[in-house]
Design brief:
The structure is a single chain. The chain is mainly α and 335 residues long. It has one domain. The protein contains 14 helices and no strands. The two termini are 41 Å apart.
């Protein structure tokens, strides 16, 4: 499947929404909560991309998981290990962080665990909570690859709805159960349904794409204006789906102009997402030298620059190095 520019642009948009959320929180003491809805866009995009890629490329479950590990793990481990090492070497710079071996290992292996720092179900690098969701989704999706497309769709839909039902009935405090049964997990099958429609060429006409984009943006604006953020899967998940669906429908019906800067930021969105809290925290040490506006702009700018650098120098080289090589068929020898 050819890469969709609209998906690249949405990745850039989602990453910067999250960056703005954290930057504004440190700048003004309160965050523009709607910025964190970039995560919901990422989840819908992930469901869409996983379905469309698997529909056009034959993969075994093991190959799928291997590809996902190569894509996700190296950069995440690098950032996590650097963060832990810095906290141990310079504890004064991380006064609220409690480092523990068990929490670090749980973070590295995507196991939801309560942080010893604050009791939240967060890994050492806080944005990594979304990767716990992603890796769990990948595990379920890998199981679905044993099935044909129709049965795969049914299996995924039933599995995620069953998880949410368990979450509604469960009254305990086991972190993995609490975490994996959160309704936000329904945003992955939202993207899967869009991917199925795209794969079967059943997307509506261009005007519906424009309508979906407008509706998604208006719903996001309304939730920001009214300061509503719950229930998240409805308040942010539905607009995220509409935004992704609208972008895909528009690109399916007409060409989208290439904007090199947005393509680059889309490529680097994962590195930007992982490194931005460290970047903003580092700039925060010099906050007294900025006024609020310049600090906010500096946070966005440096988060982008450092994220792009991390993508070019760390994420992309690791991915190329570890990417599974296609098997070369050996010629038959004459007997």
């Amino acid at each position: 499947m050819a890469r969709l520019l609209s998906i690249q642009y949405l990745r850039a948009f989602a990453a910067f929404g999250v960056v703005a959320f954290h930057a504004q929180g440190l700048t003004y003491g309160r965050a523009l909560v709607i910025g964190s809805a970039g995560v919901d866009i990422f989840f819908v995009v992930s469901g869409f991309v996983m379905w469309t890629v698997s529909a056009h490329r034959t993969q075994t479950p093991a190959e799928f998981i291997a590809n996902r590990i190569v894509r996700i793990v190296p950069m995440y481990w690098f950032v996590t290990i650097c963060f832990v090492a810095a906290a141990i070497a310079f504890p004064a710079l991380f006064p609220r962080l409690v480092v523990s071996a068990s929490h670090t290992l749980a973070s590295l292996f995507f196991v939801p665990m309560r942080s010893p720092s604050n009791g939240e179900i967060w890994p050492v690098v806080v944005p990594g909570w979304t990767l716990n969701c992603e890796m769990f989704f990948y595990a379920i999706f890998a199981l679905a690859l044993f099935l044909d497309n129709v049965r795969r769709l049914v299996f995924l839909a039933l599995t995620f709805f069953a998880l949410i039902l368990v979450g509604r009935l469960y009254t305990g405090d086991n972190p993995p159960i609490t975490f994996y049964t959160d309704p936000i997990m329904l945003e992955f099958p939202m993207g899967i349904l869009l991917g199925r429609a795209f794969e079967q060429d059943r997307l509506p006409r261009l005007r519906w794409g424009h309508a979906a984009l407008a509706a998604g943006l208006l719903l996001f604006a309304a939730s920001a204006w009214l300061a509503i953020d719950s229930p998240r899967v409805l308040v942010w998940g539905i607009p995220a789906f509409l935004l992704v669906a609208g972008a895909v429908i528009v690109e399916k019906n007409r060409s989208v102009r290439i904007v090199p800067a947005l393509v680059l930021l889309g490529d680097a969105s994962y590195s930007i997402y992982l490194t931005h809290t460290l970047t903003i925290s580092a700039i925060g040490k010099f906050k007294a030298h900025f006024n609020p506006s310049t600090f906010f702009v500096a946070s966005l700018t440096l988060s982008a620059l450092i994220g792009v650098a991390a993508w070019r120098l760390i994420e992309r080289p690791f991915a190329e190095l570890l990417k599974p090589r296609p098997r070369v068929q050996q010629p038959h020898l004459a007997e």
